[in-house]
Sequence to fold (572 residues):
Amino acid sequence: MAFFKERILFLLLLTFIPIFTVAQTTNVIMPDSLKNKTPEELVDLIKSSDAEQVEIYEQILEGFHKNDSVSAKFYLRLGFHFYRKEDFKRSIKYADMVYKIGDKLNYKNLSFWSYILKGATFLREGKHQNSFNNYYEAVSIAQKEENPKNIIIANSGLVLVLHKMNRLDKALEISKEMLQAIDKTSLKNGIDHVSILTNINEVYLEKEQYDSVLYYANKGIEMSKSLGFKEGLVDLYIKKGIVYYFTKDIGQAFDNLHAAKDILEHHIIANQLFPRVKVNYYLASCYYEEQNYEQAISYLCSTMDFISEEDLNKLPVIQSHLLLANSYFKKKEYEQAHYWENLYIQLNSRYQEEKDKTVDTIYEKETKKYEEEITKLKSKKSIANYLLIIAFTICLIVLLIGLKYYKKQKSHKIVFSELVEKINHLEMKNGTENKKNKKKSIVIDDAKVTAVLKALDKLEDQEYFLKPECNLSTTAKKVKTNTTYLTKIIHKHKGKNFNEYITDLRIGYALQRLKNDKKFRSFSVKSIAAEVGYKSDDAFAKRFKAKTGLNPSYYIKSIEKLNRNNNITKTM
Fold:
């Protein structure tokens, strides 16, 4: 998905039309061959040169229009160039330079794009919290500037980060807001619209809501065809292929994956590598399911032929090694099987180590160092020093665990505050005036659809969703229709499938009642789960966490603490 985000950013960057003047004096001795070069030509040289020459060209470029908007736009272009080349250090460097100029000139649009570039870079580095913070700042600027396009662009990046952080419900919520907002902008039915559909499908795939994936994929494919947007077609055909693979419809999976493969073979598109890796992987997976291991091996070996050494740390490539090993095992070609299995183990081990370079890496590094020292001390039989090192190691581990816990609690507090604010807002909207507006809002030509929606509203008022027996079949009977028709109505008018609709009602009810009912907060999680219609506390806790990002127990404790603080404030 990263290449779609890049496509949006670069298309919008084309709107910058720089005007140049004569270069100013620099501290670099300029070769005669560069004296007449324009800044634009220097930018091109930086993009096409080796590392040693790049540094010279960079210093000369900085002599042009220092600290003005023209140079900032050049730095922005270079920042995105190095981002695409995965030279993240330079990408961040240029983003910071752009931010300083934007801050000095009070040019918010430059600050916005600086945050976007840093958000994208940190996301590619796996520094998800840093990425989230920068995209969040970009959203704030766009909202203050009341720039709908920039709001959508920043939120599109935010969705990708939230997906990586496993905050799927929040990602889905923002995605739906973008889909509604895009209708009011010139982005509608354009490439950016397709890119947002691909982003939202990433979340739906993760949540295994396959009917929604197919719905948005078909919409995106239709748009991509009219636009001639090959990148969008490839991505969406692959997503449809993945859905059909997981739902065991291998014939449909083959059709969609081969459609993506044909586009990749006959058209030049940006960042072909990972679409090709994914297509080969899932085609091989389909053949593996059909026990055609020879064909599976053929597609996977094709992947191994075109990847480079630097691609070996990417998860789809690592997964391809594992599937290749399994295929050879199935064929009983054990020498080849063990060869690819060993490669997989090495690559996966390296991937797991490099995936998170924060607390875990520090902990492992320090532990290893002190374990080696402990070994030396044992050989010298120096018990006093041995015990001292153990004590120091334990203190270090406790400190690191404490830091990790502190960061986690800080993140939970932010999520909790946002959740309480959202509940308060919903409670205000649920007053008498809102109920009247709700009744007036159901103005639909189809009388049967109107009747079903009114019946659903009545069931919501009666809190039928809290009953354990509430399911698609019983609800359809209650509203006097069939399950197929009810599913379509809920998808169209509620913007979700039936299970998501019921889950939202139950979790929303639990959140509000826990906030306002002290006695209800005293119940066990198992009792609360039963009250809101779940047969087990595990099912309730899982859905509560997916919806809010918090465990029920944490939410209850935080509400109690909030109420105590409010009571203390009132008595003072």
User: Anything to note?
Assistant: The two ends are 54 Å apart (CA to CA). Confidence is low (pLDDT under 50) at residues 1-28, 356-382, 432-443.
